[in-house]
Write a structure and sequence with these properties.
Layout lengths: L1 H5 L1 H7 L5 H8 L4 H13 L6 E8 L2 E11 L8 H4 L3 H20 L4 H21 L15 E3 H7 L5 H8 L5 E4 L2 H13 L2 H16 L5 H14 L9 H12 L1 H12 L1 H25 L5 H13 L23 H17 L22
Parallel strand pairs: 2-4
Antiparallel strand pairs: 1-2, 3-4
Helix pairs in contact: 3-11, 4-9, 4-11, 6-7, 6-12, 7-10, 7-11, 13-14, 15-16
């Protein structure tokens, strides 16, 4: 996977041939029913146009994983980028539209038509932003918890084929959490009022944007110029090997993590670390018992809490093997697409099942903590 990512020569020589089958499917859309079909395929491949959907612990029953439908589908970092009227925001939006136009031009769309499509993308994303919650509102958990039945979801957005979408991506849904009901109304407005041609332009943009890291250099450079340079002030692109390490880590975390642990920690390191943590927990338990300012009942509860801590040391109990993922030495885009399909399938399989507290939420080489 890493070597295919590093092989810039092969990526360049293939041009847009690797992504062409995906773009051709979008180009073949004739009506809104076919738009739903295209959305199904894109979600199965790991793309996220219009909204985000996946598994999440039920906030009021944290032992169970449920389907979670959340706002998304906007290329700019936050809804306020679309709605603020100050001079800086207006200028950023102008530069964003110019960037989207350039991405269309890179796949051979004439400048005038690319400009029209870019403006359509902006209008769709602005409509989505109108129904999205701002960052402050999203800090309130009660504003992100709205259990709906599938029928209720269909009633709030009848123009999108929800009953077809969920089984199409591989999950059965009768009830789910809809984080932002007003956002679903924005999705309805987009699907019902936007022309099929503009919906196709929007899906095409999503594919180009999300796949740019494994496409020819011009796509990656154009993406960097707007998202990292203009938005974040970066001076230059990180070395390719670092970008390919990140992609490998993100899409095949257990394959990389397993080798990383074998090379660094090893069995002896695991044994020592488990013993160390055991001694720390024993010392904490001794401290709790000796405290003179806690009642016996409080000490008992504190010990329950101490022993309730789940230790995640070194490795997961069961590694993902990726046996069903085909990785080709000369197919960076295809590798990413196939790894994406695997992960989407794995994630959706969690819905309706108990929460797995033993699962890692980051790869073993990741420098972080939670």
């Amino acid at each position: 996977y890493y070597t295919a990512c590093m092989d810039e020569g092969t990526i360049q020589s293939k041009g847009t041939a690797s992504v062409k089958p995906v773009l051709d499917r979008i180009a073949a859309i004739k009506d809104r029913a076919a738009f739903t079909d295209a959305m199904i395929e894109l979600y199965r491949e790991g793309f996220n146009p219009l909204f985000r959907f996946g598994p999440s612990p039920d906030a009021k029953n944290s032992k169970l994983m449920i389907g979670d439908l959340d706002q998304g589908g906007m290329g700019l970092p936050d809804r306020d980028y679309y709605l603020k009227t100050d001079e800086k925001s207006v200028e950023l939006r102008r530069q964003y539209v110019a960037h989207v136009q350039k991405m269309f031009e890179l796949i051979g769309v004439p400048a005038a038509e690319a400009a029209r499509r870019a403006q359509a993308v902006m209008e769709i994303e602005t409509e989505l932003a109108k129904g999205a919650l701002d960052r402050v509102a999203r800090r309130d958990p009660s504003k992100l918890y709205h259990i709906m039945t599938l029928r209720e979801l269909e009633s709030s957005s009848p123009s999108f084929g929800w009953a077809k979408f969920f089984p199409g991506i591989g999950t059965k849904i009768q009830r789910l959490n809809v984080d932002v009901p007003d956002f679903v109304k924005s999705v309805e407005a987009v699907v019902s009022k936007t022309s099929v041609e503009d919906l196709k332009a929007y899906l095409t943009w999503n594919v180009l944007h999300e796949a740019s890291a494994v496409m020819p250099a011009a796509f990656e450079e154009e993406t960097f110029n707007f998202f990292r340079k203009t938005l974040q002030g970066a001076k230059e692109m990180r070395p390719r090997w670092k970008r390919c390490v990140d992609l490998t880590d993100r899409q095949l975390p257990d394959a990389l993590g397993r080798r990383f642990v074998e090379t660094t920690l090893g069995e002896e390191g695991m044994r020592r670390t488990h013993a160390m943590v055991g001694e720390i927990e024993k010392a904490m338990a001794d401290d709790l018992r000796s405290l003179d300012w806690m009642t016996a009942k409080t000490k008992q509860q504190a010990e329950l809490k101490l022993h309730g801590v789940l230790n995640k040391i070194g490795t997961v109990e069961k590694w993902q093997t990726y046996d069903t993922v085909t990785i080709a030495r000369d197919d960076a885009f295809g590798n990413s697409e196939r790894a994406g399909r695997y992960e989407v399938h794995r994630q959706l399989a969690k819905i309706g099942k108990p929460v797995d507290k033993k699962e890692w939420e980051m790869s073993q080489p990741t420098v972080n903590a939670y």
